[in-house]
Amino acid sequence: RFRRGNSSSSEGGRRNSKSFLPEDSPAQLMSEVRKSHGGGGGVAGAESLSKTSRFLTTSRMLRLFSAGVRAPPAGAKVVYLQGAWDMFHAGHVALLKRARALGDYLVVGVHGDELVNAVRGLSLPLMALNERVLSVLGCKYADDVLIDCPWAVTREMIASLNICAVVHCPRPDCGEDPHQARELLGDPYKVPIEMGIFHEMDSPVDLTLSDILTRIHQQQDKFQKKIAKKQEAEDDYYANRYGFRGEAAAGPVGAAVGAGKAAAANGVRAVKKVVNTASQAFQGKPQ
């Protein structure tokens, strides 16, 4: 049910840790703040943000989310759309709905963490690949997901997935510069354009990841209280179910939970500073 793309597309991120972002852009500012709080370059720096989440993906979880996935019927017009889908939001949903209307079956490609990190900056993606995949699978307009899809849409990929139309949204989701990314990694849509199956399509909902970060900054106190309440609920869950709470627990399991709690708290503080810096850069800047 799941198709996994090759990871060669993310080699650019490993060969060149430079992000494809204009100088002093919001995402670049987030990168600098992340580095100042102990994050290294590349995926290692972004990974510490992912550690703030306790979400665990099991094969059972994947089966539950993919329960409605079916193979495309014979003769179906398959549409392909790829992206990062970070912090999956209403703008993404609206775009998937519009793309789905072009055909009978929509395959959504989800870029791997390294590729997103290389294109958008050292602090992105905020959600790990498995979380972003499940987010897309939860959308009723996505019929199937291509996990860790390659940067470029190739003829082999089009043939193997029976793709009839390739859709691209030209609007950046987080202030990245797509032209600089294409200069180094190449045009990802060169083949579909040559084959005459390329379609450029914008989301009808004017919402981006940049907007979400700005809103978080504006409601910072509210979100901090929400996060604190969530952590308290998690502690109560572990205490009621397993009989221990945070660092007070005995044994290796308890120690791991305590360490996770401390890491989560550090992550929340880091994200807070990242959002503060990024949101200040977003103020008055056209999207």
Automatic annotation (TrEMBL):
<keyword id="KW-0548">Nucleotidyltransferase</keyword>
<keyword id="KW-0444">Lipid biosynthesis</keyword>
<dbReference type="InterPro" id="IPR044608">
    <property type="entry name" value="Ect1/PCYT2"/>
</dbReference>
<protein>
    <recommendedName>
        <fullName>ethanolamine-phosphate cytidylyltransferase</fullName>
        <ecNumber>2.7.7.14</ecNumber>
    </recommendedName>
</protein>
<dbReference type="GO" id="GO:0004306">
    <property type="term" value="F:ethanolamine-phosphate cytidylyltransferase activity"/>
</dbReference>
<dbReference type="InterPro" id="IPR014729">
    <property type="entry name" value="Rossmann-like_a/b/a_fold"/>
</dbReference>
<keyword id="KW-0443">Lipid metabolism</keyword>
<feature type="compositionally biased region" description="Low complexity">
    <location>
        <begin position="1"/>
        <end position="11"/>
    </location>
</feature>
<comment type="similarity">
    <text>Belongs to the cytidylyltransferase family.</text>
</comment>
<keyword id="KW-0594">Phospholipid biosynthesis</keyword>
<comment type="pathway">
    <text>Phospholipid metabolism; phosphatidylethanolamine biosynthesis; phosphatidylethanolamine from ethanolamine: step 2/3.</text>
</comment>
<feature type="domain" description="Cytidyltransferase-like">
    <location>
        <begin position="81"/>
        <end position="171"/>
    </location>
</feature>
<dbReference type="GO" id="GO:0005737">
    <property type="term" value="C:cytoplasm"/>
</dbReference>
<comment type="pathway">
    <text>Lipid metabolism.</text>
</comment>
<keyword id="KW-0808">Transferase</keyword>
<keyword id="KW-1208">Phospholipid metabolism</keyword>
<dbReference type="InterPro" id="IPR004821">
    <property type="entry name" value="Cyt_trans-like"/>
</dbReference>
<dbReference type="GO" id="GO:0006646">
    <property type="term" value="P:phosphatidylethanolamine biosynthetic process"/>
</dbReference>
<dbReference type="Pfam" id="PF01467">
    <property type="entry name" value="CTP_transf_like"/>
</dbReference>
<feature type="region of interest" description="Disordered">
    <location>
        <begin position="1"/>
        <end position="46"/>
    </location>
</feature>
